[in-house]
Write a structure and sequence with these properties.
Layout lengths: L11 H5 L5 E5 L10 E3 L3 H11 L12 E2 L3 H12 L6 E5 L6 H5 L8 E2 L6 E5 L2 H11 L4 H12 L4 H15 L5 E5 L5 H5 L2 H29 L6 H23 L5 E8 L2 H16 L6 E7 L9 H21 L4 E6 L8 H12 L8
Parallel strand pairs: 1-7, 1-8, 4-6, 4-7, 8-9, 9-10
Antiparallel strand pairs: 2-3, 5-6
Helix pairs in contact: 3-13, 5-7, 6-9, 7-9, 7-10, 9-10
Subcellular location: Cytoplasm; Endoplasmic reticulum
Organism: Mycena sanguinolenta
Subunit structure: Homodimer.
Length: 365
């Protein structure tokens, strides 16, 4: 390890790589109760500890499980830094929780909206599960045949999500932004996207077979029921258009000059374990990743007599050391502190974003 020249512990490398088009920020989680868990302190004990240390306690669910790795804060902050050196930046949330609005204190929707206080930073929040429903509603005018073809298509496992994500990417590709930052859902949606070309190929093959066998009969029935002619061809054309978009974007995702993934975690066993799984999955899919943000680190002062602080810091240092052993050779490891207040609003995000570019130095005792 002593012979390894450590990479700078910042995200400056992302700002310097002007060829990047797609930047993903995310964690890997198997569900709401794992992956992004910080700890399982009982609520009252955790609140008491937070009061003793003097920090705002993180978000919790009803079981007292502390959740959140700072993924959204990191993606927002990175987008802010990119806006300083890129012509235009689009920040997209595909996380159903849609925390971008909370982070900036501004309501965002499925349409790109300029972020208050910036001239070239835009944000939008998209729910992949709802966009497919909108597509179905828009094609209701095709009548009986359109409905039957949709039912046949959506019966193929995964095709609804594939078409939904294709709609999103088709929309995004039509926009002229120099770089796009994704605040991804911690459920593997982004990784599954890479298998969608195969899913759509399967859907197209099955629909083609069914269409050749039953197309004339369905068209005749559709005409009798008042449906429009040519709806079958329209359906195939839509699927083919989506397949082409996904294939093109998929190629760009596998190009390290175009795409990179920033992993965000905290210094605990489960989060580090899931981060390693994420790195392996990204490697399998040939997606570049060489930055890991370790968030919410404690840097207690020597004069602080908080026992919980000392114990927790020792635990964090243990897993931080393991992270360095795993990733020092090929990764930039960015260390961020647990702050005494929430990072909300453009001004606080701007301040936080500086720590992504300049290594954090804890104040002296």
């Amino acid at each position: 390890m002593d012979d390894i020249e450590l990479l700078p512990p910042t995200l400056q490398n992302i700002l310097d790589q002007q060829s990047l088009k797609w930047i993903f920020c995310g964690t890997f989680s198997r569900g709401a109760s794992s992956g992004s868990i910080l700890t399982c302190f009982p609520i009252l004990r955790w609140k008491g500890w937070c009061r003793q240390v003097g920090i705002a306690h993180p978000v919790k669910n009803e079981l007292g499980i502390i959740i959140g790795t700072g993924k959204t804060t990191t993606s927002c902050s990175l987008a802010i830094q990119l806006a300083k050196c890129r012509k235009s930046v689009l920040l997209i949330s595909t996380d159903p929780a849609h925390n971008l609005s909370d982070a900036f204190g501004q309501k965002f929707s499925k349409d790109a909206t300029k972020v208050n206080g910036f001239d070239n930073l835009f944000a939008m929040e998209i729910d992949p599960t709802s966009s497919i429903q909108e597509m179905v509603e828009q094609s209701d005018s095709n009548g009986m045949m359109g409905s039957m073809m949709q039912d046949l298509a959506f019966a193929i496992p995964g095709v609804d999500e594939a078409m939904s994500f294709a709609e999103i990417m088709k929309h995004v590709k039509s926009m002229e932004y120099s770089v796009i930052v994704f605040d991804t859902a911690p459920t593997g949606h982004t990784l599954r996207f890479l298998s969608f070309p195969t899913v759509l190929e399967k859907a197209l093959g099955k629909l083609s077979t069914l269409g050749s066998r039953f197309g004339p009969m369905i068209s005749q029935m559709s005409s009798m029921m008042g449906g429009e002619a040519g709806s079958q061809e329209d359906m195939f054309a839509k699927l083919e258009s989506m397949r082409e978009v996904i294939t093109e974007v998929n190629t760009q995702f596998k190009d390290p000059e175009k795409t990179t993934f920033v992993c965000v975690c905290i210094s605990e066993f489960l989060s580090l374990y899931e981060t390693e799984r994420l790195v392996q999955e990204l490697t399998n899919y040939e997606i570049d990743t060489h930055n890991i943000v370790v968030n919410q680190l404690l840097f207690p002062k020597k004069s602080n007599n908080c026992e919980h602080c000392s114990v927790r810091q020792k635990m964090q240092q243990k897993y931080l050391g393991e992270a360095h052993e795993l990733y020092d050779e090929f990764f930039h490891i960015i260390q961020l502190p647990l702050l005494t207040e929430e990072v909300r609003g453009p001004e606080k995000l701007k301040e936080f974003s500086k720590m992504l570019i300049e290594p954090y130095v804890p104040p002296s005792d």
